[in-house]
Amino acid sequence: MNKRGLLYFTLSEIEPRVWFMLTGCNFRCRGCFRPARDGGGTLLTASETLERMERACQNYYGEVPVEAMITGGEPTTDKEYLLSLVKGLKAKGFEKIVLMTNGYELGIDEEYVPELEEAGLTEAHVDLKAYSEDVHRWYTGKSNKPVLSAIEKLSASGIELLVQTIYMPGIVDEGEVEQIATFLASLNPKIRYRINPFASVFAYEKVTRRPTLEEMERAYEIALKYLPNTIISRSCYREYPTPPPQKTWITVYPDLTVERRGMKDQAEERLSWLSRVRLREGVVEDWQKEEWDFTLRHSLVGISELSAKHYKAQEDAGSGRVKVKFPQALHGLTKTGWTELDCDGSTTIEGAMKSLVERYGEKFSETVLEVDGANGEIKIKRSFNVYLNGMNIKNLRGTKSEVHGNDEIIILSWVSGG
Ligand code: SF4
User: Which residue in 1, 79, 185, 254 is a FRET match for 170, CA 20 to 30 A apart?
Assistant: First the structure.
């Protein structure tokens, strides 16, 4: 049985979900920001990987989750390993199995996509680095024909598809985005398309600068003309929708040691990789200057949410249910990671919180809420943050923010335990 390098698993603190970080890649993107590209990690067969994943999840969650994301590096370079991994996840009861890929191998091997579908893959996120062949070759070292072919195959399959592009001013900008959007729309205008901003600070080669908010907005408007399911990225957040700086996640290494890490740790990992492989002077100073450009990223979340909400409303109009997700820290109280509330017409965050108190009792109120004695107004305790469709309610109308059927509320704890 073939072995692949596993760098670590990442476990979500929001709800049971596991990422597999596999090492090695068949591309050499100039702007690569992934240390896993260069191989390394612990060599394991697919069944050894699954066995360690199961132990890691049992130790942390007390159960095996139903959502897995397979990423890297490039996960598709060993077909036998990947098929065994996906089959194994399906056999263990995983319901959502997502592959994050550059698509190249899937386009070369005619049987790869159908075999992945049969194995149980439910979703693929394909990076389309550029539409123009010469730009793609210059940036990745490989032709984009197989990538385009993989996208066609996935679009025609039962695997849900998301295509992503990194906006790089002067290289992959409005013109490329328009060509990509036209190509995707010709396959299926409902394809989900995400545009991510280039983060020059972490790039292997600083091929360009980071885009401005205005450039991202223009690219978004252009893509939207062809693809109504366009969003601008939140992908630089480790997981939707938590903004930094309070975000952390659980890293489990192949020897099952555990570390809680955050954006700063990830930045350090990338910067130390860059210093090692590029001997790039000044990377740390760059990082200090740019600091992830939180303003740009927060603004992008706003744009993205408008779009996501628009389509959600279009697709699910009238289902009248509001999904509420709880942090690990509340699971002892709620006995569940999420629930749904009835919502005919509209309510507010305050109304939703009252419904949760009715459902989970006064203990929920004491833990999460503060009641202003003077006017009975409900506030969220400082140790919790509440997000409505990805936006912190502090940036909306607080507990007076309106909630409608099909909305999603996520409660996060700043002190959620592991
Ligand atoms: S960006 Fe992704 S596809 Fe490109 S070299 Fe890095 S890991 Fe490989």
Answer: 185
